[in-house]
Amino acid sequence: xxxxxxxxxxxxxxTSETRLPDLTRxxxxxxxxxxxxxxxxxxxxxxxxxxxxxYSLTLxxxxxxxxxxxxxxxxxxxxxxDEIQAPLTDALPPALGELLRSRVRDAPVVPVVRILSARDVxxxxxxxxxxxxxxxxDEVLAERLTEDGHGTTSAWTEMEVxxxxxxxxxxxxxxxxxxRKAGVRPSDAPSKLARALAETAPGKPRKTKKEPSPRTAGDxxxxxxxxxxxxxxxxxxxxxRDLPDSVHRMRVATRRLRSAFRTYRKVLDRxxxxxxxxxxxxxxxxxxxxxxxEVLDARLRAHAAALxxxxxxxxxxxxxxxxxxxGRTASRRRAVSVLDEGRYLALLDSLDALLADxxxxxxxxxxxxxxxxxxxTDDYDRLATRVGHALDLPPGxxxxxxxxxxxxxxxRVRYAAEAARPALGKPAKRxxxxxxxxxxxxxxxxxxxxxxxxxxxxxxxxxxxxESAFTWGLLYAREEAVADARERELPEVWARAAHPGLxxxxxx
Length: 508
Hints:
globular; alpha+beta; eight-stranded antiparallel β-barrel
């Protein structure tokens, strides 16, 4: 069983001669209590080609201190990491191994660095004796682990200030100001492991190559694709841990990739990208089972909660809850199982291969403005056709289907404009914003279609159980009213989005 917590800390340069300033002068600190010296011994694991380090992840097995065990740290933002802990065992706990899968694929994780730390610990307490932060001065010895056992070593001293659980991050700013006045400076290394890898690397340390600024149409498209592939990989452990909105964000990344491959098929060879689009469609559909259930549950509960009690006839809330739990349990299990499939891992490998050797077409070498703007407006023309078709149809099932097709086209235009924004600037931003407004109207309409189908099923189940179906019928009627309102709203929203000035500005 793995536990997790949010680690918020700052690192500083120090020497064996570093002396702590009087931290009781920091606002909120009433006492600084010395907690003694702790000996920590940690072995850090990675693949041989350091795939975890490339994503700024750290995996270690540590003995000593109060939290001996396995620790996996996933970056959240600067100075903030999600730390997942598992009990001390000889082998890597399966629960942590699963969270690494999108990074390591089939490669084994092996010991790469051993770090010994002599940690001198101080607690910063408030007037009630509650912990505000832990400050430690660490004497560090790092050794590179090699097959022959003769790795290089490095030693240094550093200071860490780690915020107490549920503490205010602004407190660390206050502590830092006091430390800076005493001459203590922030560390350049984001973690002990990063510094150890850099200072114990065999031969001369290699300088990290800075990615050149995108210049051509191909540069911009590949930069966008790279961001979405990175999002897929990084969201994998979040989906496995059932973190809020993780499935939705991962699904959006798959859709953005599919959209980019279709929209920019004059930049990337579709003989390579079409098979990837098929696999991304499969992944989005598998993830969609869980996401669609989540959206539907939230919508039905919100609409039921808005009804007065006098209109809630029968065990409406209980039936919604039972349906939600049963559906989400099954869909969640399915989403996680997909991430363990060889098909999914092969897709990630194929995306990496595309980025390593991009299948660029001649248009990729051209200046971005004309190429990207033309691709966006081509998608827009397809959307205009679908919206016009939907508006020409009478209300009913056929129009519902047409509006759903228009919604998918609006989403594709929006993603295309977002991908082109670094090259086209504010016109692309405004264009994407208008397309999002169209997508929102069409999306709410489609959600009402799905909700009505679910409400019909719930009404049948309630009737079969001898319950009143009145409330389900009432909710159905309200969803019909929502759909009607969106259909009446669409022409006006579309007129704003179809303004010729926007299209002209996009083309420059």
